[in-house]
Design goal:
This protein has 318 residues and is α/β, with parallel strands linked by helices. The protein is 16% helix and 24% strand. The chain is built from seven helices and 17 strands. The strands form three sheets. Strands 1-2-3-4-5-6-7-8 form an eight-stranded mixed β-sheet, with helices on one face. A five-stranded mixed β-sheet has the order 9-10-11-12-14, with no helix packed on it. A hairpin with a 4-residue loop joins strand 9 and strand 10.
Length: 318
């Protein structure tokens, strides 16, 4: 679970033809609140992406690379993005979102291939639809196993009045909303690969944001799915499970790959970004860790660091 706003530069070399698909808002839950973050939508970067029809009105779907679709949730403050990655024999669903809409319905409209789920990490906003799938690979950590049991507290926190843009889906039961338990069918570790047939995904352990955070590398196509290690907006590094030393090590590792990458695919706000952002991210977080950046207090025991176009939310220094 996280909160964010703000953007970094998108990959300038991405060119696409936008198709006209009307924006769909679900039926009313008797709320007409329009929070400030909602007024910033739609984000202009989406105009450069190819939009395709969505089988569920909670989501917007974009083709972001050959054989890769981004499933975007613009109606909730997290602006979560899950990815369908197609091979010749199988498909991977990288994250399953909040679990408010029916993401399985969307996935089945995009591919008839068998689908295996991997999660960038197991915060509730990335595993909400896991329960709908029979094949789920999870990192071999206690954090993963605990979160696989589900949660109602974190899920309910996603439905505060200032967290919803427009309306919830007709028939959605907000009072009983929770992250449902799911079953991990295979444990994965750093360096493991998932062969989709003609496309191999490498698992890169990226602990820091959470102990079970990963990135997915499609080396052949130069694609890096960054999860919550990098995205355009304030990066959450203040939760109890966050390890700042581990985070720095992880982003330093993926930044070293930047010269071999063509595209970053983050899990919030905007689904594409330029690999050149990674070395800049490392330089920015190193300045914070070195104490050369003054924090701004934002309340609730948190501070914000603004440095060189990046924003980090952290626990207030003691």
């Amino acid at each position: 679970m996280r909160r964010k706003n703000g953007l970094s530069c998108i990959a300038a070399a991405i060119f696409a033809v936008t198709i006209a698909v009307p924006s769909v808002r679900a039926q009313s839950n008797n709320s007409s609140l329009s929070p400030d973050w909602c007024r910033q939508l739609p984000r202009p970067q989406y105009q450069k992406l190819v939009r395709v029809p969505s089988a569920d009105p909670w989501f917007e779907v974009y083709r972001v690379a050959p054989g890769v679709f981004a499933i975007y949730e613009p109606h909730q403050f997290e602006e979560v993005i899950s990815f369908v990655i197609l091979g010749e024999k199988r498909a991977t669903l990288f994250d399953t979102g909040l679990g408010i809409g029916d993401i399985k319905r969307v996935v089945l409209s995009l591919t008839s291939l068998p689908v295996v789920v991997l999660n960038s990490h197991t915060h509730n906003d990335h595993v909400g639809g896991n329960w709908e799938f029979s094949e789920i690979y999870g990192m071999d950590t206690d954090f993963t196993r605990i979160n696989a049991k589900g949660s109602s507290v974190d899920a309910q926190a996603e439905l505060t009045p200032d967290s919803i843009c427009g309306h919830l889906l007709a028939g959605f039961d907000a009072k009983s909303y929770s992250t449902r338990p799911f079953h991990i069918t295979r444990s994965i570790h750093d360096g493991d690969t998932v062969d989709l047939g003609g496309r191999v995904l490498e698992v890169l352990a990226a602990p820091g944001h959470t102990p079970d955070a990963i990135c997915l590398l499609d080396r052949k196509n130069g694609l890096l799915f960054t999860g919550d290690s990098f995205y355009a907006g304030p990066i959450w590094l203040y939760r109890p499970e966050t390890d700042l030393d581990a985070y720095l090590h992880s982003v330093d590792r993926i930044a070293a790959m930047a010269p071999q990458l063509h595209l970053l695919l983050p899990s919030h706000n905007v689904p594409v970004d330029d690999p050149s952002q990674l070395p800049k991210l490392v330089a920015a977080i190193k300045k914070v860790r070195a104490g050369t950046v003054q924090p701004v207090t934002v309340g609730e025991g948190k501070v914000r660091y603004n440095v060189d176009g990046f924003v980090f939310l952290m626990t207030a220094p003691k």
